[in-house]
Amino acid sequence: MILDRSFSISFLQIVLGSIL
Description:
It contains one helix and no strands. The chain is an all-alpha fold. It is rod-shaped and about 25 Å long. It comes from Rhizophora mucronata (Asiatic mangrove).
């Protein structure tokens, strides 16, 4: 559970980073 959450957070950060 925790690993999935951290993975999704990192993925969101990467996506937001590429957009910004």
